[in-house]
What we know:
By secondary structure, the chain is an alpha/beta fold. The chain has 9 helices and 9 strands. A 7-stranded parallel beta sheet has the order 3-2-1-4-5-6-9, sandwiched between helices. Strand 7, helix 6 (193-201) and strand 8 (205-206) form a beta-alpha-beta unit. Helix 1 packs across helix 7 (208-220) and helix 4 (100-128) packs parallel to helix 5. The longest helix is centred in the middle third of the chain and has 29 residues, at 100-128. It starts with a strand and ends in a 6-residue tail after the last helix. 37% of the residues are buried.
Amino acid sequence: xxxxxxxxxxxxxxxxxxxxxxxxxxxxxxxxxxxxxxxxxxxxxxxxxxxxxxxxxxxxxxxxxxxxxxxxxxxxxxxxxxxxxxxxxxxxxxxxxxxxxxxxxxxxxxxxxxxxxxxxxxxxxxxxxxxxxxxxxxxxxxxxxxxxxxxxxxxxxxxxxxxxxxxxxxxxxxxxxxxxxxxxxxxxxxxxxxxxxxxxxxxxxxxxxxxxxxxxxxxxxxxxxxxxxxxxxxxxxxxxxxxxxxxxxxxxxxxxxxx
Length: 259
C-alpha cells in the first residue's frame, strides 16, 4: 500500500509516517512545507523500515495546492491507497486583531485543501472499490471558544464533512475516519514545557504516538469517528452548553499560558 501523509515532517504527521511504515509496512509519499526536515524523515524511515519513501515539498495552504499534488501523483504513477490529511496550523488571537492573510491560510489549509484532496483521491478509490482516508478534527469543533474562532470552525467543518462522506463512501469499500482528539502533546498550541508535562500527567493531553496508534486502528477497522480518552468523550456533550461566564473567564486567563 502507498500512504500519502500531509504535514509529515514533524509532530503528529511524523508519527503517522513512522507507524504506517513500521507497523503496516506502507510505502510513503510524504508532503510538507519543511523541505530539509522532510527529506531527512523520508531517508530515515526508508533506512529503518525498508519501505519506499518519497519526499514532496509543497505549501498546502495555496489555493491550487490540492490540484497540483494530485496531478503530480498521477504524472509520477503514484496510486494512493491511504490518505492522511494531517497538515494544520494553530494560533490564538482575537479575530479583529488577526490578519486576513492568517485567516485565509488557516481556512485554505483546513477546509479547502482537505476537501479537495479528499474529493480527488476518494474518486479514484471509489472507482477501485478500495481505499482509506483519515482526517484530523478536534474536540474544539464543539466549542464556542474566543481566540480560536477560526480554528474550531474549520475543525467543525472537517468533522461533519468526514462523517457525512463515511456514508457515501462505505458502499464502495472506501473507509473514511475522522479523529477529534482533545489536547495533543506537541508544540502546536504554544504551551510552556512545564504545562505540557502536567497536561500529559493528568491525561488531559495525549502523546502523539498514542493518538496515532489509536487513529490507525480505527481507520483500518472502518470506524467513522473517534475522540480518544474517556474524559474527553464524556465531556464532549458538555462543550456544546458551556456557560457564558466560563467562556469570559477563559478569555481572561488562557492567553497568559501561551509562549
